[in-house]
């Protein structure tokens, strides 16, 4: 079997940029619909809803403790790419509302759009050696070390987070939010397979 060629610096730059942009668009749809999500982004969304604080800075701060694991277990390159991706996402989520508004959105459709866009974004980040930090770092480490599918591990974390969300938000909001999280994690679980996709 011939080794796949490695991504160039330009490949990584466009791949990470594409991934962050898709994720930022997905979060714009999510928050317009008033939905929540899982992982560290979900924690940041919930905190921003409850406090009125802006999502971007909250998301950036929540991710800070996870970089230590990323540095220790995944290496400096992965950690730097993840830090850059998280920083760019934090900035983009602040800038997008200035030029992009949604007038009407069915919550179910919003959940699916969020799941697909953010799932695509995370796939691009993973394929180019980055992540959006937090649980993504833990999930990728577990997949590489123990063979646990990253999407399924994130789905388990999401289950705990949504159990808490049921205590805070109206049930319909959490139900539609669950749909978005399931779509997102299935996109990752089905498509992020090192036995099928070998480009690095």
UniProtKB/TrEMBL annotation:
The keyword Transmembrane applies. The chain crosses the membrane at residues 15-36, 43-68, 74-96, 108-126, 159-188. It is a multi-pass membrane protein. It comes from Palleronia aestuarii. The lineage of its organism: Bacteria, Pseudomonadati, Pseudomonadota, Alphaproteobacteria, Rhodobacterales. It is found in: Cell membrane. This is Putative 5xTM membrane YitT family protein. Coiled coil: none annotated. Keywords: Cell membrane, Membrane, Transmembrane, Transmembrane helix. GO terms for cellular component: plasma membrane. Its main location: membrane.
């Amino acid at each position: 079997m011939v080794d796949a060629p490695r991504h160039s610096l330009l490949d990584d730059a466009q791949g990470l940029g594409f991934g962050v942009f898709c994720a930022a668009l997905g979060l714009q749809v999510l928050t317009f619909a008033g939905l929540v999500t899982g992982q560290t982004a979900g924690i940041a969304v919930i905190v921003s809803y409850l406090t009125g604080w802006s999502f971007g800075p909250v998301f950036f701060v929540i991710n800070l403790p996870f970089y230590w694991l990323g540095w220790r277990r995944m290496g400096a390159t992965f950690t730097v790419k993840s830090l850059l991706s998280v920083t760019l996402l934090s900035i983009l989520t602040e800038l997008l509302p200035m030029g992009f508004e949604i007038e009407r959105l069915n919550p179910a459709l919003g959940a699916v759009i969020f799941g697909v866009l953010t799932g695509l974004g995370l796939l691009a980040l993973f394929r180019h050696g980055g992540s959006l930090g937090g649980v993504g770092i833990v999930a990728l480490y577990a997949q590489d070390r123990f063979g646990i599918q990253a999407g399924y591990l994130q789905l388990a974390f999401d289950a705990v987070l949504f159990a808490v969300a049921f205590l805070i938000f109206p049930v319909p909001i959490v139900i539609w939010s669950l749909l978005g999280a399931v779509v997102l994690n299935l996109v990752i679980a089905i498509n992020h397979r090192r036995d099928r996709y070998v480009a690095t």
